[in-house]
Write a structure and sequence with these properties.
The protein is an all-alpha fold. The chain has 13 helices and no strands. Helices cover 78% and strands 0% of the residues. The radius of gyration is 33 Å and the shape is elongated.
Length: 209
């Protein structure tokens, strides 16, 4: 009479052991799958960082513009340079292919701010070069570009950022932003000029104080 219960207990124990082992294996497989997915995503992200912006694949580039055989070879050479960390030669080829936007983005992304701005200046887009410099906190360079673009208010803002209050005052006045110019004049201790500028900005209360 005892043999049957013992056999049943042994069978239950075996079944439980198998279930535990299967559960453990399932957990291992799940973790392995998640790790693989994370690695693949990481590799894809790293790959994207070393590709020409907007290139995706050759077919998407071809849809954007038709390359001749020589141009396609140059584009592939630019991609090869970029994959090997040779950013400036890659950007030079892109500019040669009239892909200035991609060249500028590649240079900016890798910290070659002067090179990115120079492309814009060669295109006579001094205002955009100023924006690039300002985006990276290079205020003096930005001010020079905005001067060439005849944008006095932007020159003044940049001058205020790099601490040249006299220049900021001069260019705010040129931009007819008399209130801002007056504040700069006050900072410089030139109260007569500040009063004159406040009057121009129709702020009589400030002018009289």
């Amino acid at each position: 009479g005892l043999i049957v219960p013992i056999a049943v207990k042994i069978e239950i124990g075996v079944v439980l052991t198998i279930v535990v082992v299967l559960l453990a294996l399932a957990v291992v497989f799940i973790f392995a799958a998640l790790w693989q997915v994370a690695n693949v995503r990481g590799l894809k992200a790293r790959g994207r960082r070393r590709r020409i912006p907007g290139s995706g694949d050759q077919r998407s580039s071809d849809r954007r513009r038709k390359f001749s055989r020589i141009e396609r070879k140059l584009f592939q050479e630019a991609q090869h340079f970029l994959e090997n960390g040779k950013v400036q030669p890659a950007a030079a080829i892109l500019e040669q292919l009239s892909m200035q936007r991609e060249a500028i983005q590649v240079l900016e992304d890798h910290g070659f701010i002067h090179d990115a701005a120079k492309i814009l200046m060669r295109m006579q887009r001094h205002n955009r070069a100023g924006v690039v410099y300002a985006r990276h906190g290079m205020w003096e360079n930005a001010a020079q570009c905005f001067k060439m673009a005849n944008m006095p208010a932007e020159v003044a803002k940049c001058a205020r950022e790099f601490g040249d209050t006299a220049l900021a005052c001069e260019y705010f006045e040129k931009a007819e932003r008399y209130g801002d110019a007056a504040e700069c004049a006050e900072e410089l201790g030139d109260n007569l000029r500040a009063a004159r500028l406040y009057l121009k900005s129709s702020n009589q209360a400030k002018a009289m104080s």
